Structure formats: structure tokens, C-alpha cells
Amino acid sequence: MLDPQIPVQNLYFLLCYAWDRLEQGGLVDVSKISSTELVDLFATVLVKGLDHLKRRGFERGYSPQEEELRGIRGRINMLPTHRRFLLEHGRAACSFDELTTDTLPNQIIKATLRALATDPTIDSENRSNVLRVARELNGVQDIVVTTHSFRRVQLSGNNRFYRFLLNVCELIHGSWLASEEHGLYRFRHFLRDEKRMAYVFQYFVFNFLRIERNDLDVFRENIQWEAQSSVDPQLAMLPQMQTDISVLSGDRKIVIDTKYYRETVSEWYDRPKIHSAHLYQLVSYLLNIKEKGIKVEGILLYPTVERSLKLSYLIFGIPVKIQTLDLSRPWKDIYDDLLQLPN
After folding, report:
1. Which residues form the domain of 207?
2. DSSP strand E in 198-343: where?
3. Cα dihedral 159, 161, 164, 166 sign
4. How far apart are CA 176 and CA 65, in angstroms?
5. Are 12 and 142 in a shared domain?
6. Do 28 and 168 have their domain in common?
7. What is the C-alpha separation between 267 and 281, in angstroms, rounded?
8. Could you say which of 74, 100, 126 is where a domain stops?
9. Is the domain of 147 the same as that of 243?
10. Any idea what the Cα angle at residue 111 is, between residues 105 and 115, rounded to 5°?
11. Which value, to the nearest 10 degrees, does the dihedral of the CA atoms of residues 246, 168, 6, 336 take?
12. In this predicted structure, what is the pLDDT of residue 119?
């Protein structure tokens, strides 16, 4: 398994970059978290986030209401008004929109807070704070959160901080192990989920370079096969080649392929070897890039697991590096290493 001992502060920065929410994540200071439990990290983020939202005001939305009222508000529903002889009593059945904090984003955040409080590993002070801010969402109904709940959320462009908090909630809900017998939730260590962390690691590196190295052009691209076929002239049966990260710097194009894998190297007759499939994939990308005046290079990047690597080769005359990024080091060291990655 991958070593899950990434400091929680480092993981927080990884997620902020991966979600492209660095500015919003900076509003929450996680530098003083003493716990090493992920549940405490996310509890702290949601508590501090809700405290920030309370100062500026929780999101409000319009909710359709139907009531019998003395007087008129909104639109009169004629059929029930006449059927109940309401006008004779100075009343009317009305439909109107009411501004309320009982919105889907607030419902999701409240439900997440309540479930976090049931995790048996959460710090007692964090549990108290989680329950405190959940109570402050008074008037917000309790709901059962599903994956579909997040797909239904609609936020305006100026609600990016809400989007950040909902990213946190979605990660939490995807990482819970629920105990139906006791109605409790236990947070599963999603760092061991290779598929999920591969996505986080890839977009962390991508957005880091895009944000911090504005001297570079950072993008993803589809590479066309240098191939012909009389039976498949459109090359439709060939697999798509899409880079994780392409970096253009002057006349250099650097293709970075990120891998979040349980073992950095494989074993061949008790000798360590680079994973052949990973290297073949990167080399295929490099060999099929044909751009006039562009020098192509490749980097295969892993998080450090059982060993650190910094290897350089010339393969078909193309510079290729295989190296690791140690996510357990102080954040400043990780930051400096990534700044130097495409150099």
C-alpha cells in the first residue's frame, strides 16, 4: 500500500490545488492542526469555513411556498381560494417565493457536519465545534446526502467558497464507512484509494504548475498517432493518447506523466525495475509528437513510497526523467521541488 503518512497540512494543499480552489482554501488556516487524523482536518476546515460564511452571511435562495393568508402575497391560487370561500373572510390562497437559508448547499454542509460528529476518531474539541456550527444552521432541514445531491447543486460564480466547502463535503461522503447498526460513520483512509488519489495527484501537479509557473504554458493535449492503415484509415481503433500534463517552455515541450501507485518500481528477478507499462506509455507519447522546431522531453513522476528516484535517460535520443516527489516533507520543500520540476 502507499504510505498514508502525508501530513494533513500537505494533504490540504494538495486538495486545494487539485480542486483549483487555492484562493478559497487560503481563507482557512490549517497550520495549527495538531491531530494527524483526516477527520480532524476536514472538521477544522468545515468549522472555520462556516465561521467565515457566518460573518458574511449564509447563502440564501428562494423557496416556493403556498399558504392561506390574510391579504395577498405573490400570486392568488384562484381555485382553492374560491372553493374554500376565502375571499369572504378576507383571506386568499397564495403562492410566493420566500428567501431562506434552507438551500441544498446548506443542507449538504449541515448533514456532513452531523455525520462527522459521529466518527469515533474525531477529537472531542472538534466534535463540539462541529455540533456548534451545525446548530447555527437553524432553519436548514436535515437531509440524507447522496452522490446525486452534489450533482443538483447550482451556485453562482461569486460563491466559489461554497464550492470549495462542497468539494470537502463530497470527498468526506465518498470516504465514509457507515455502520447501519449504530448509525455511526467512520472515515475511511482515502489515501489508500489509488484511483482517487491518482486523480488528486495529477491535478495537484497540473494546477500547481499552471498557477505557480506563469512563465510556462501548461495544458493537456491529445496526441495523434504517427500511423497509417488501409483497413482503419481514421485510426479509430487505436487507443487515445492524452497527456496528463504538457508544458511548453520556449522551444521545449515537456510531457509529464503522473502515477500514484502502490510501488514505485517492480521487481524482476529480485532486481528493481521501472514499471514497463508506465515507461512504454510515456515513450509512445514522446515518439508520436511531431512539431517543427520543438524539442520533446518526458518526465515520469511518482510520489515517494519505499524509495526516492531521480533517474535520467536518453531514449531514442529523447531526454526522459523518472523521479519521485516526497509528499511527507515540509510543504516548503515540496513547493520548491515542484517549481524546479520542468527545468
Report:
1. 194-340
2. 217-219, 222-223, 241-242, 245-249, 252-258, 265-268, 271-274, 295-303, 310-315, 318-325
3. negative
4. 35
5. yes
6. yes
7. 19
8. 100
9. no
10. 145
11. 40
12. 86
Question: How far, in Å, CA of 25 to CA of 45, rounded?
Answer: 9
Phi first, then psi: what are they for 239, rounded to 5°? -65, 150
Domain count, the chain: 3
CB count within 10 Å of CB 331 equals 15
Q: Tell me if 301 sits within 8 A of 341, measured CB to CB.
A: yes
- Residue 255 and residue 259: Cα distance in Å, rounded? 13
The three grid cell numbers given for residue 1, joined into one nine-digit string? 500500500
Give the sign of the dihedral formed by CA 262, CA 263, CA 269, CA 270: negative
Q: Could you tell me which residues come within 8 angstroms of residue 70 by beta carbon, excluding any fewer than 6 positions away? A: 90, 91
Under a CB-based contact definition with an 8 Å cutoff, are residues 43 and 162 in contact?
no
The residue whose grid cell reads 513547493 is 335
Reported as a single tens digit per residue, the pLDDT across 167-208 is 999 988 887 654 444 555 555 566 667 788 889 999 999 999
Taking only the tens place, the pLDDT of each residue in 124-156 is 999 999 999 999 998 899 998 888 999 998 887
Grid coordinates representing 90? 378576507
In 154-287, the DSSP E strands lie at 176-179, 184-187, 217-219, 222-223, 241-242, 245-249, 252-258, 265-268, 271-274
Taking residues 222-247, what's their average pLDDT?
94
Task: Give the span between the Cα atoms of 52 and 22, in whole angstroms.
Answer: 16
Helix (H) / strand (E) element for 94: namely strand 91-100
Q: Are residues 89 and 120 in the same domain?
A: no
